[in-house]
Please model this.
Amino acid sequence: MNDILHPAPPEQDGQRGTVFVFLSLFVLVLAFFIVLVSISTVEATKSKAVMQSLTSTFQAMVPAGAEPSDFTAKEGEILGGSAFQEKITGLFATAFQVAKVEIVKPGRLMQVEMPAGALFADREARVRPTAHPFLDRVVAALGARPPGLRFDMELVIGAGRSPDRMLPVDQSLEMARAGAFAREMLTRGAPPANLSIGLQPGGADAVTIRFYVRPGDEGRQAQ
Model:
């Protein structure tokens, strides 16, 4: 009634309208920020749950402190070398019952000792035909190296016993056998860079074969 009898001046009406507008904007902005905070809280919760899931999964797969690069460079090489050694051991066990196989360094070096007569024809510089399938499988194993590794083979034949332990200078049966073995391996596709042949002082009826597992770049660095 008082407002009717004493109406407010136009300036006061404008001020009240302005206040209502500001209050409305404030409420709108406040509601907007409340929505944003709610969304961010949900997303943060989801992200945290995902990170916890990934962490628990990979902790079960990779031990704490393990470096993937170390596994690839070290453990991976040993695993590949061990598989190669198992393959070669099986080949000798199947082809030569008299061979003595020794793992000198697991995943790195193995040595096989056997009578020369098991590999070569009697008193001849010729590999027994029955050993040819064995040579084919060895060549295949040498060539089936995984990336980053190389497989080397070394055959050493005893050159006989002498008082001064000197190797023979003239052509001998042992020297001819070493050459015959090298030719047989190369004919079957063995990489020349991965094959070594030689003589050593000792019994002429003994053959020693060593298989090395080396890093793939070791041969290139030595050249």
About this structure: The helical segments are 2-5, 10-61, 68-95, 116-119, 132-143, 173-187, 218-222. The chain has two domains: 2-61, 68-222. Residues 10-61 form the longest helix (52 residues).
